[in-house]
Amino acid sequence: MSRKLLLICGIASSSANLAANLPTPWMGVMERISIFTYLAWVAILAIVLMRHPGERRGVDNSMLAA
Known about the structure:
The protein is mostly helical. The protein has one domain (2-59). The protein is 68% helix and 0% strand. The protein is built from 4 helices and no strands.
């Protein structure tokens, strides 16, 4: 879902109206949604990696407890 939303908002924010110097209603909203979905993805990735520190990188978890 977030990939589709990011793609749609990215395409909408690079409209031809901007290049033609025409009014661009809702462009700011689309840009904010695009940035928010990317930052939400990064935050979720960070949370997942912090919950499982060694499993994804092949580190022996017994060394982390010492």
